[in-house]
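Listing 4. Sequential folding, example run.
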Amino acid sequence: MADRPVTKLDKSEVLTGLFAVWDDIAALLDGLPEPEWQAASPLPGWDVKALVAHMIGTESFLAGVPAPQPDIDVSTLEHVRNDIGVMNECWVRYLAAESGADVLKRFRDITDDRRKALTQMPAEEWDAVTMTPVGPESYGRFMRVRVFDCWMHEQDIRVALGRPSADDQLAGPPSELSLDEIAGTMGYVVGKRAKAPEGSRVLFDLTGPLSRSIRISVDGRAQLVEDFGGLDPTVTIRLDGLQFTRLAGGRPMCPRRSQDVDLGGDGDVAGRIVENLNFVI
């Protein structure tokens, strides 16, 4: 994959989104009654506290803090499927006995440390290639993946607490950057997972506060394009933008928003794409 292009992203834009989603999560959890930290999330085996522990763990890893030793072999747990899952679970178990308020303090402390480190990071480090959850990529792309991950978990927490995002809360840099990250993976979804045939032109028509048009053209390989050169799409998939992010993240749809998914054009291909939208590890 040496010829794979590296994504160069504007540091201030990505960090604005990352810091904003951390602020939103901290505000959402501030003063949360202790029982609500145990509310079941849409992710199997994880409550609200586990979601926050996972984010603490990832930022700690990026800050060079080793994962705590678990009390059991976490790789045997049903919802742990890979090495990243093992690291996540070490932090989840380690912090499970702490109070919600203490876990929130840890979240604030590690994200404050990361803010300082990221703000001071030189441009050459920001653009340097490193291993990321999406393969060898720029550190900046990795941080956009962090925006996506944290924003998705904010929505998970909101579902768990029965406090889904209002329309105005869905507008802003974190959701826009998360959609950018998801859009960048749709070529893989359409081409590799759904095996859309050569010549396919797939339009994701997202509605609601996260409205956006995402176009994937299959021309040798499936890739994100600005337009179809005046041609009509062969497949149209229309749904609420937040619900699109839920499906792309392997989550159940949010119960408070429209769950309609309208398919146009080649129904077989459209159906395969929707069935294979989940791209997360």
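-- end of first protein; second protein begins --
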Amino acid sequence: MTITNNSWDALIQREKEKEYLNDLDWALAREYKTKKIYPPKEQIFEALKKTPKENVKVVILGQDPYHGEGQAHGMAFSVNHGVKIPPSLRNMYKELENEYQVPFSRDGNLEDWAKDGVLLLNPILTVEEGRPLSHEKLGWQRFTDEIIDELEKQDQPIVYLLWGSRARQKKERIHNPNHLVLESPHPSPLSASRGFFGNGHFRKANEFLEAHGVQPVNWTRSTLK
């Protein structure tokens, strides 16, 4: 299983000693050998690689990776450079424009957010092509529960953005008084109009961070020339 070469490696090594993660590793080896699985194997832990735990300011929880060719690269809601922006991410951009009243131009790669302290975490880290939630029973949720538990040991201010029922399942693990939980429906076209639009989460997250002496996230940075 891939390592991150940062502060998440201790958790990964600890979990590798447990039977469930060894079972998951064997199952994944079969899946990658016989099917099209996303993201590429070397990018499964990309969110952890890009955002070491001591740098985490905001956690955005997704569901599982995009299941189309060339989209997923290991960070929730993010796609590779040059890939068409998916509907949920487009709705996130619409909400940002509404909150900040500033039109901005960017592609769908959110690596700059990740480097700014936003952990873009899918509770399920892999998926079979064309089959959303196909890896729901492999054991990833137990591993990502451990990630949340590890973050809950951190004293720095952290904001959790829980959008949709899958993300909200993690709420019971969040108990640190230094952390803030914001909940709303998912940004997908099926639910965005039922409470995602107008939730104000990007501004509220930054207001919380600033109130606790932490540099806010530059959500509206342009990535297009």
